[in-house]
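Human: Here is a favour to ask of a fellow structure person. Comparing notes only helps if you start from a blank page. I am asking you to supply a protein in sequence and C-alpha cell form. Write it directly below this note and I will take it from there.

Assistant:
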Amino acid sequence: MFTGIVEELGEIVGVEPQGDSVALTVRGPLVTQDAVHGASIAVNGVCLTVVDVKDDVFTADVIKETLGKSSLGALEPGSKVNLERPLRLSDRLGGHLVQGHVDGVGTIISREPGERWDVVTVSLPHDLARYTVDKGSITVDGISLTVVEAGADRFSIALIPTTLALTTLGHKKPGDPVNLEVDVVAKYVERMLGDRS
C-alpha cells in the first residue's frame, strides 16, 4: 500500500527484453537505501517487486499483463519515473490509499500554465469515469492528486510548484501517456451497493 506522495524522481537505466516481459533497471538513491530482494517499490504508480539491488540501482521484472495495462512499456533508458516505497503502518497518510494497481492509461490532453501552477487535463478511459468526482482523489503516474473537474472522458488536476518540480508531471506534455489508479474506496462502495438486494 502506498500514499501517492512521490519520494524521488528516479531514472530508467536499463530495459532488457525477456520474451513477453522486461527487466526494468531503475536508479533511485533514496528508495534503494533500505531496498532488499522482494521489496516493493512503486514506479510511476505501478507496484513492482525488487529482484536485485546494487548501490543506488534496483531491477524489477515487468510481466506482459503489467506492460499491457500501464505505460511502463514505453519507458526507455533516460526516462524519468516517480518512485515511492510502501507505507509503514506508523507513517502519516499524506495522500490517499494507493494500491499500485493501475486501472488504466490516460493521455495528457492539455496544460494551462498559471502564474506558479498548471492545470492539466487528462483523458479518462470510459469505464473509469464513474469513479472520478470533483474534489475526489485520483492517482496519476503514482501521484496522489485532487480532481478539479470530472467529465465523462476526461478530468483536470491542478499541479502546485512542488509537484511540478519533483515529479514526472512537471515534464510531461500533451500526448504523453500516464498511469491512472482510481480511488479504491469508490470501487469497494460500488461493489457493496451493487450486491444489495
